[in-house]
Design a protein that fits this description.
Blueprint (H helix, E strand, L loop, with lengths): L4 H12 L3 H10 L3 H10 L4 H7 L6 H10 L13
Length: 82
């Protein structure tokens, strides 16, 4: 049985970040957000390519929230309201 890209990515992200809080802590403490993206790429999770394959226009932060933690909206819709 072949695992879908979405399922593979979710499982790999959950392995890296056990909870949304753990991901948020890592993201918020990173000096450069791109460093987190590069870490994931080094672990075989190229978020840009994954987003393209899934035909998603989410940024890396929202993509991780959506795929790994089933958050339909994390930052994207709320950032501009504050």
């Amino acid at each position: 049985m072949t695992q879908s890209l979405r399922d593979f990515t979710k499982a790999a992200l959950k392995k890296r970040f056990a909870s949304l809080d753990q991901f948020l802590t890592r993201w918020n403490t990173a000096d450069r957000k791109q460093a987190v993206v590069e870490e994931l790429e080094a672990e075989g999770l190229p978020l840009g390519a994954i987003a393209e394959e899934l035909r998603s226009d989410l940024d890396p932060f929202d993509l991780v929230c959506h795929l790994a933690f089933d958050e339909s909206r994390c930052r994207g819709e709320n950032v501009w309201r504050t």
